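Sequence in, structure out.
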Amino acid sequence: MDILIGFAVAALKAGVSGVVGNEIVQALADQGIDIGSDKLSQYLEKAQKELSQVLSDKSLMKMNVPEDYIDYIKEEIKGLLRSISIDEELFRNCHYDAKSLAEVLYKKYKRQKKDFVECESEIQKILYVMSGKAISLEKEREGFTEDSLVYLMKNEDKKMEILHTLDKFMKTRITDSENGRE
């Protein structure tokens, strides 16, 4: 996993599990990302704090979650984020869009629950808020733009290689066809 998504993933998982300080750095290390910068540690602590605030009782009550369901919903969200693979492809496939990410997470949740979902609207709302917060934090991260541009350039290089390979293949097929060697 590259560092671009690693921060958002670690922050999202740390936010729901209450992980702090060195444990956040460990969460990144578990993904194969080694950081030593105080700035990055500060970023992760800020991200963890903001994401875990989304699941606070006070925040959930502001989102009109019935008090009787708060603990249940917290555990459901935490369980989902612990159980699924949140990786760089997920964020990229969602184009860093909170709504898209929340929809993907909710579909995975529904699949886990075999389409039987209690507190559906509340869970969707919380996933949307958490997705928005995670993506916002990632976009604010120092180096996000540069990392994104590097990814795009690498991706474009790969696309060009594929096009060149296809072009060679097609030219060979046309030449073979013209010479009667199919």
